[in-house]
Every structure is written in C-alpha cells, then in structure tokens.
Write a structure and sequence with these properties.
The protein has 70 residues and is an alpha+beta fold. It is built from 2 helices and 2 strands; from the N terminus they run βαβα. The protein is 43% helix and 11% strand. Strand 1, helix 1 and strand 2 form a beta-alpha-beta unit. The two termini are 20 Å apart. The model has no long low-confidence stretch (mean pLDDT 89).
C-alpha cells in the first residue's frame, strides 16, 4: 500500500522534498505509475491531524483486517 499525500497543505521543505512548485504534477505522476503497475494506493488529504488519522486507519486495515468490520 502506498500512501500518497495530497497537495492541499502548505509545502514544508526538508532534505527529502523538492520542487515545491511541482507538487501536483509529482502527485499525478506517482498515481500514473502506481496505476500502470497495478499497485494499491490511497491519497491522503485534509489537515495534518486528519492525514495522520487516515494514514493510521489505512495501515490498520492491512495489519488488522478485523477493523474493516467497524
């Protein structure tokens, strides 16, 4: 499972991220490649807190399938 971060929050530079003006293009390219290779992904959006909750929820679905029943 790939967790892709949407571009709806301000860019925060660090040593791993670059091209702040090309974020949407980068996201679109990632989606294209994942779809081309039939990889499962989820786009995570919302506030920082909402993103964290969604990311945790998606990972829990993988490692604790019984959570799907909730």
């Amino acid at each position: 499972l790939y967790l892709l971060m949407d571009t709806n929050v301000p860019f925060v530079p660090d040593s791993q991220r670059y091209l702040p003006d090309s974020r949407q293009l980068s996201l679109e390219r990632c989606v294209q490649e994942l779809e081309k290779h039939n990889k499962k992904y989820v786009i995570i959006s919302g506030s920082w807190e909402e993103r964290m909750k969604k990311a945790i929820s998606e990972v829990e679905k993988l490692i604790m399938p019984e959570k799907l029943k909730d």
